[in-house]
Amino acid sequence: MSVEMFKKHYPVVIVGGGQAGLSVSYRLKKKGIEHLVLEKRQILNSWKTQRWDSFTLVTPNWQCTLPDHPYDGNDPKGFMNRNETIDYLERFAAKVDAPVLENVAVERIWKREAGGYHVLTSKGELSCDQVVVASGGYHQPIIPRMAERLPESILQIHSNQYKNAAQLPEGAVLVVGSGQSGAQIAEDLHLEGKKVFLAVGNAPRVARKYRGKDVVEWLDDMDYYKMTVDKHPLREGVRDNTNHYVTGRDGGRDIDLRKFATEGMELFGVLENYDGACLTFRPDLKENLAFADSVYNNINTRIDKYIVEQGIDAPEESHYKPVWEPEEERDTLDLAGSGITSIVWCIGFRPDFTWLDAPVFNGRGTPVHYRGVTQAPGIYFIGLPWLNTWGSGRFSGIAEDSAYLADTIQQNVVSTTTTEVA
């Protein structure tokens, strides 16, 4: 697309060329609303560059329901791997054929006196009436400042840089964080024969299968995925929840950190500090493992209740009982003596919306919205966790979210005709 596009004023600008931004583009094209997608790198960039080699979806393939683009493979109850997921998304991108400018970073968006918004980019300036922020909420990899004090000989990478065990040096590895990425990366390294130390946080876990079906199927039957934020017991607090760890690898299975411990993985509590010789951890390993198991069993109890209420004939299954308990809370680890030569930080990301100069954030810098619609005229968000439902940050909810936003945008369209910027 030509540089002349930067001389234009657009009815809508979409910031971000991932599945969320492409979904909104698809909806707007259907409605005949002119728009432009700005992507800092390449479309679907994070899927192509920030997933490890053995990555699989943790939700079944049948939940992949982008707008008019459902999963069409032959394994709906399976879990697409990295390459299959990218192929699914690339076919969606080809179907959308969005008006996108790649390698164009948005540096600032602010209000125009004439109405609408200025959009300053790395390649020039344009303006628009409405803005859709579709860049997600995972922008800045979190690595604690204590990392600066670790020996230079220790290779440190973030989870978004991890590909496989071969990229790490010989020796043991410390994985910090036990959310979805941390648990799966620890498993990957463990299966590859690496000596793994894992700093376990308070992430919950969930069973892969229970009483004859994938737990996701049970929760879908129970209408959990239809629950909206305003109906959830935690209300907007649910947006801060850590994802449950489980895996779709090898057809799908539980991730049981206790089992890994019986096989030689060494578990600790939350990593707190490095004193120049030893890593120090909170003495909360037992507590964190117990919490994860309590969530696991609580979900299964809810499924049991549903089965009874509906009179469903399902095979009986007992609840999880720990296969390992730490004998003592170890809160220090001699770094040199442990043989650790690399660290994979798996403690998440911080959002960065500093480029958006608009009164749409709370005191923590988090967007305030209802179903992605903010109080600032013409500014919207999509692709955030629990934007409206559990599926909002996943492939299962974007179709509904993008349809709602497109309808709202259509109601607020100033003009569908591109004009020169005055």
From TrEMBL:
* Protein's organism: Rhodanobacter aciditrophus
UniProt cross-references to NCBIfam families, sorted A to Z: MSMEG_0569_nitr
Supply the InterPro entries for this chain. Auxin_biosynth/cation_transpt, CHP04046_FMN-dependent, FAD/NAD-bd_sf
Which superkingdom does the taxonomy of this entry point to?
A: Bacteria
Q: Which residues form a coiled coil?
A: none
Keyword vocabulary terms for this entry: Oxidoreductase
Name the UniProt record assigns to this protein: MSMEG_0569 family flavin-dependent oxidoreductase
For whether the record's keyword set contains Cytoplasm, the answer is no
